[in-house]
Specification:
By secondary structure, the protein is an alpha+beta fold. The protein is built from four helices and four strands; from the N terminus they run ββααααββ.
């Protein structure tokens, strides 16, 4: 799934207009790794799936971007990605969430110039 940002995002010298999250590649071990990363960051949320950072940890794993990429996003994009990850984990799909804009897999994630 490719997710468009509200505006281009600058990270490590590159401007990104979107990010590709391969949520279908997610495994149970990756979910456990994300939970462990969350706990080692000091987050002690009783329901780790609802912690904002948990969605970012999953996104980092499936996008091959470092966690810092997601932590530096504007809050609206950061929270939107978290909602999409939670929806995927609970429903098997992140499509059709109200107010969420993703685009077809045939379109590539865009690096803005």
């Amino acid at each position: 799934m490719n997710i468009k940002f509200h505006k281009p995002y600058h990270f490590e010298g590159v401007n990104y207009a979107s990010i590709h999250l391969d949520l279908d590649s997610l495994t149970g071990n990756m979910v456990i790794q994300a939970e462990n990363n969350l706990r080692s960051s000091g987050d002690m949320s009783p329901v780790y799936e609802m912690a904002p950072r948990f969605g970012a940890e999953i996104a980092a794993l499936v996008s091959k971007q470092p966690i810092e990429f997601f932590l530096g996003l504007p809050a609206s994009d950061f929270m939107r990605i978290g909602r999409m990850v939670r929806s995927f984990l609970l429903n098997g799909s992140a499509e059709g969430l109200p107010g969420e804009e993703a685009f077809n897999e045939d379109e590539e994630a865009v690096v803005a110039q």
